[in-house]
């Protein structure tokens, strides 16, 4: 069976699985999401199995599963309108297929540079920040104590950061440098999320700031690992960071 056929089959099956999670009782929704995560992980491994190496079970394969879990959890927060939820399922399926294509590019690009690799980095970064936005929104919506927020933010974001930085190197092993930078950056992001837990900010604002910080941080780190962190690049991201700071001040509660 051709890879693209596998990608279509898995994308359709996972879309149906996402739709099925909405018909389980609310008390079982987290278990249903966990089951969807496991199914997504192993079905993604089957779809991408041709070129997978041992490291990619920790870098490439979890990405579709994390995306599926984030959408599933956010799905429960949507109004119970059939057509809106059906539209989300359709968008999810298309996104999952695009994610498989992106993951496949990373898998086959080991040891050589292909033209689609740059496009794959852009698509992967897009899905990373979208997944982050959905996870952060769900976590802050639960209104948990700050330490639970910190734990959940770290667990959900560390694999995203690790995959994003590893995709620049595409090494057969995860280097100590990439692992260290991933850990430090995720801890900083977690501390930011912990700070937001003490502020009476709107949930979407909290999630958007986490997503924006992730975007700027990953963009800078990726350019650093590519050896393209030039002054102009730094200035561009500094402007984005300043804009984020201004928006934070304007939206600061009690201002």
Low-confidence segments: none
Q: What is the total domain count?
A: 2
Q: What is the alpha-carbon Rg in Å? A: 18 Å
- Characterize the largest beta sheet: strand count, sense, and whether it forms a barrel: none
What separation lies between the terminal Cα atoms? Answer: 60 Å
Instruction: Indicate the mean pLDDT.
Output: 88
Strand element count:
0
Q: Given the structure, what is the number of helices?
A: 10
Percent helix range: over 70%
Looking at the structure, what is the overall shape? globular
H/E element sequence: HHHHHHHHHH
What fraction of residues sit in β-strands? Answer: under 5%
The helix-and-strand class reads mainly alpha
Mind sketching the topology for me?
Elements (H helix, E strand, L loop, with lengths): L2 H19 L7 H19 L8 H4 L2 H14 L6 H27 L7 H26 L4 H24 L6 H22 L5 H24 L4 H21 L4
Helix pairs in contact: 1-2, 1-5, 2-4, 4-5, 4-6, 5-6, 6-7, 6-9, 7-8, 7-9, 8-9, 9-10
In brief:
With 255 residues, this protein is an all-alpha fold. It contains ten helices and no strands.
Tell me about this structure.
With 255 residues, the chain is an all-alpha fold. It folds into 2 domains: 108 residues, no CATH class; 144 residues, no CATH class. Helices cover 78% and strands 0% of the residues. The chain has 10 helices and no strands. Helix 1 packs antiparallel against helix 2 and helix 2 runs antiparallel to helix 4.
């Amino acid at each position: 069976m051709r890879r693209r056929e596998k990608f279509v089959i898995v994308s359709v099956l996972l879309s149906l699985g996402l739709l099925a999670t909405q018909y389980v009782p609310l008390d079982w929704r987290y278990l249903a999401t966990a089951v969807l995560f496991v199914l997504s992980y192993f079905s993604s491994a089957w779809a991408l199995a041709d070129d997978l190496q041992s490291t990619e079970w920790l870098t490439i394969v979890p990405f579709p599963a994390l995306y599926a879990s984030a959408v599933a959890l956010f799905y429960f927060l949507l109004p119970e309108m059939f057509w809106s939820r059906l539209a989300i399922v359709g968008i999810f399926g298309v996104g999952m297929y695009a994610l498989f294509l992106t993951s496949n590019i990373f898998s086959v690009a080991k040891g050589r540079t292909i033209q689609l690799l740059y496009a794959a980095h852009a698509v992967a970064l897009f899905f990373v920040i979208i997944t982050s936005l959905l996870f952060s929104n769900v976590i802050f919506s639960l209104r948990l104590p700050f330490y639970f927020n910190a734990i959940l933010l770290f667990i959900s974001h560390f694999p995203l950061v690790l995959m994003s930085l590893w995709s620049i190197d595409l090494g057969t092993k995860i280097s100590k440098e990439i692992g260290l930078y991933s850990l430090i950056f995720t801890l900083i992001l977690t501390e930011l999320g912990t700070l937001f837990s003490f502020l009476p900010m709107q949930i979407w604002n909290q999630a958007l700031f986490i997503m924006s910080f992730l975007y700027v941080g990953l963009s800078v780190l990726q350019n650093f690992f590519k050896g393209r962190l030039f002054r102009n690049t730094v200035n561009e991201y500094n402007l984005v960071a300043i804009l984020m700071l201004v928006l934070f001040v304007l939206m600061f509660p009690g201002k």
